[in-house]
Specification:
about 120 residues; alpha+beta; Nuclear Transport Factor 2, Chain: A; three-stranded antiparallel β-sheet; 3 helices; 5 strands; about 25% helix
Length: about 120
Amino acid sequence: MNTIFLNPETWDLALDNDGNIALAKDPYAKAQDVASAVRLFKGELYYDTGKGIPYFDETLGKKQSFALYQFRLEKAALTVPGVITAKANVNGGENRNLVGSITFTDKDNKTVQVQV
């Protein structure tokens, strides 16, 4: 499965050597799609407002356990086509930031880790 390549530093479109919009291929494409899925705010995807994590309603500024947040990350990762398992590992970082990763396995039995 291919997807539009997003520059990892800016999360913006990139061009290939011919000046076309760059495409990412598996397994990077699935890793990027998992990263996008966990960054999606519920209601933000205009053609499917049910997708995403309820960051505004239930997460940001609210007391919440790491376990619930990890569950939501894993559930979001599993919405990516071809992802069959996902395990999130989140810890408190500096200045109230959360840091962690999601390790997922795809239908081809490849395991990939994504930093979140």
